[in-house]
From TrEMBL, chains A, B:
Entry EC number(s): 6.1.1.12
Single GO MF annotation: ATP binding
Record-given protein name: Aspartate--tRNA ligase
Cellular-component GO terms for this entry: cytoplasm
Amino acid sequence: MAESLNGMKRTKLCGEFRLSDVGKTVTATGFVAKYRNLGSIQFVDLRDRSGILQLSFSEADHPEVFAKSTAIRNEFVLAVRGTIAPRGEKNVNPNLPTGEIELIVEELRILSEADTTPFHIVDDCKANEQLRLKYRYLDLRRPYLQHRLIVRDQIVRTTAEYMAKQGFLNIETPFLGKSTPEGARDYLVPSRVKQGAFYALPQSPQLYKQLLMIAGFDRYYQIAKCFRDEDLRANRQPEFTQIDIEMSYVEDIADVMKVAEGLIREIFKKTIGLDLPKRFRRLKYSEAMERFGSDKPDTRFGLELQDVSKIVKGCGFSVFDNAARKKGFSVRGINAKGMAKFTRKEVDALQDVVKEYGAKGLAYISLKPDGISSPIAKFFSEERFRALIDAMGGETGDLLLFVADRDKTVFDALGALRLAVARKEGLIDESTYDILWVTHFPLYEYDEEEKRLVAMHHPFTSPLTEDLKYLKDKPLKVRAKAYDLVINGQEAGGGSIRIHSAELQETMFDRIGLTEKDIKERFGFFVEAFRYGVPPHGGLAFGLDRLVMLLTGTDNIKDVIAFPKNQAAACLMSDAPGEVEDKQLIELGLPVPQK
Amino acid sequence: MAESLNGMKRTKLCGEFRLSDVGKTVTATGFVAKYRNLGSIQFVDLRDRSGILQLSFSEADHPEVFAKSTAIRNEFVLAVRGTIAPRGEKNVNPNLPTGEIELIVEELRILSEADTTPFHIVDDCKANEQLRLKYRYLDLRRPYLQHRLIVRDQIVRTTAEYMAKQGFLNIETPFLGKSTPEGARDYLVPSRVKQGAFYALPQSPQLYKQLLMIAGFDRYYQIAKCFRDEDLRANRQPEFTQIDIEMSYVEDIADVMKVAEGLIREIFKKTIGLDLPKRFRRLKYSEAMERFGSDKPDTRFGLELQDVSKIVKGCGFSVFDNAARKKGFSVRGINAKGMAKFTRKEVDALQDVVKEYGAKGLAYISLKPDGISSPIAKFFSEERFRALIDAMGGETGDLLLFVADRDKTVFDALGALRLAVARKEGLIDESTYDILWVTHFPLYEYDEEEKRLVAMHHPFTSPLTEDLKYLKDKPLKVRAKAYDLVINGQEAGGGSIRIHSAELQETMFDRIGLTEKDIKERFGFFVEAFRYGVPPHGGLAFGLDRLVMLLTGTDNIKDVIAFPKNQAAACLMSDAPGEVEDKQLIELGLPVPQK
């Protein structure tokens, strides 16, 4: 049976004891991470969120306490009192902050016993993820996960401090809102009071934060939980968290970017001690696509795209020639420097990468030291083939890779190919952070499936002032006052200056094919709000989960969330979602399943 | 058409300008709160969340700007540049922090025009609440509401700072959880991936926060949104916010109360500058009930309850006599000092109060200066009647009020009566804060409807160590390690030391009538967690909405929430809950209504 603390209060956390504590009588509490019984002496590693403290039980000095200590097993919860002593020289552990000392235990209380855990609680735990998710509370004891949630707390704290200093108010927006199905799928909540009606959980607080600006709150932020009922890819969770920001009296994208840069600088400084530049690099969307084939480019390595359409136009290779001639199509390539060494099998694997992004194939020219290997060479005149190689800066040892297709496909395929080659060859310096803004996004893109324009960001994004003239006739030419923050090739956040005129907002809705009825039903109250005075405003949102992942170096979003869902949006620990009682369904007017 | 800011950046917020700014060229932005055209001069009150700045447009000095300014109407959004000047002595407004100065406008930009608003945006707005909820973004412009959300932000900020200083980590717990229908009604979220299954929105993060202790996070807090699908009384909202706290290695209620006291002190200091005592008063539950008839007593006034059962036992008045004899029943009274002046009608109104709480009637003795008036006098011997008056400390001019019933009914009725009389007679000093803890709650109470014991707080509450001996045979005698913080007669928060032994937790579930199957289905994973080492832990939660209400002096919870719901749990602004598309229902496997 568990013992009680009986008034024992810990002196400090386990990981905080140091040589300077030697000789002091102290109290510590924690979980047993490890125990070693050496016959007349027993060592125990006591663990809490701060680290490990070595306890030493000596039969000679404290026979009764020693005897009691032999019952100790892993994950028991202890409170101990004793004296801090230096470790013998040969026992010093230089890898532990507390490695120079130990606690000679004079009083032991076993606060809680523990069965053998389903897996061993160490950082290099080999248990499969399903088991660890089922016993999440045990997995969370691992320093690896504790660290990530501690950094998450630091980021949230730093955000609150910084935003307050900048005059932003933390304001909560509702979770039970209205479904406005432009975007991802909503999670719905049936109403009991008004049967047949539903609330929707927010995909983002977008409308509310703009309404807060219309309400005169001037500067708002929130650590906002958002929801999307999507089929989960890796690194997606049905509920995720944004650092959500909105401010009034801004018109230029730089006004918002400046606040965002300050916040990100502060977060990097506080969590990993890294000083970022005062202003981050900026790249226009068109340049990001042309050079990196991506609107979230990783610029820590080269392998930039090159447009060779002009050179291949009129060549005998019809795939290239057609793409070079057609509007909205192109032929582009990457020079994989020194990678002519790739085997046929390795090149085939690259074919798979581009095909995943819709390209029909990958053409290549392998400039092997013993001669050029290229299935497309035969379609070219020698002169033009040379010109193509030269245009790509091709030298002996290089592998030139080409895709010819619709621009979007070319960019997507080569952008992905670029990353695949860099990862394969270890070209990415993972020790650095590559931070930049992508700006000047198109306001619209054409949705092939729905055969209509859609807003590339969202329909509240303001067009660039200088592009307003194209809004009527050449909407695809209109660029947006939008900006994405890209860190190491990942979208860390994004936002825009918003439309603040009712007229322009209605034009925007009209262009994306919303009828007046649609607008009224979905956004009626929002559009009406524009009639009563709207300060110019803008904002952005950072993905908090993503930020924590970037700052703690993990690719797994589950590592940064205390109680995550699996790919089927289920919690393996609590078994949610689950069955509910018939009574609950009846009260909601929902059908009760036959049993 | 709206003008652009064109690079204008405000110098500071409207309410921040002072005499020390006189002579400076400054820029200000805001909404037009008021305008007065005096012919050749126009005054405009420019409003932002910080206050009001008077703008002055002079035809003589800046004829073009003046001409433009005549178009200004209420709620237009402006940016202005000009010079700060002192107001003429007779125009000084001592009620405004900016009342000594004005801005002589040299450049005016009308950033947004505004139609006439559906109601006038002033603090003494007379529009009905429905209209104001529909145009919530306009209502929120009123300084009254802005102030309340600004204080809310201060409280959240202070909490984050204080909790971090005390070593608490901010950790987010899931919104999509499992329904555990012990308590209020859950909001359910249908699962698309697993049709027929549901998530539940959290009523509180109780299980998760305890699991975080089991996971070794040691100290946790969260500003947690919680959900209850209840029929809304005034001052209830379907979604509400808790300051949620949990800590490990605590056993004594004082360990948690100390942290809570520190937080509340800090919040009062930072928001209203009030110094609270280091330790708050404590009152045991039994004493709170006996003296005030309430477990959340307002002790800013007297009118305490007195038990007269012993005195009336055996009197001729059977209602009193029976109640005095029966176990669990009693006769108690309040001496409403000096209130013999109450008319018959006023006393009848008091009858209604006690009846609302289930009492069958209110007996009284009115010690009027011209003689005693009491319908119950005839049942008493003169001697016993005198003894009853004496026991109540009755003097000429007093009104003695009695209820005889089951104890619970007596307490509820007299507790409510006490408040009603105090409010009616203005006995409550609203300028002070009355803060105290109520402790030593019963662990269980008997639920008459369900004919079983239920946990008075929740089934994770630890019994008092000294009462463990009653757990088996006299469970109603067992008191809990629970504590509520009561401010001005309102429950501001509450919590407990938790059970941390699997054995005791199972006993607890058993006593409240959960079968092993129930336990396994609802709390299986939680009970299992107790097998792997559990630190003793405890915590509490404050109602954030309630705290803001108390600190800003409002009785209306809607005043402290940006976008509240009405009594039908609907948002009149966005019209949530609403209809959704058939496609959405089909994807969720929900029936599509016939149209």
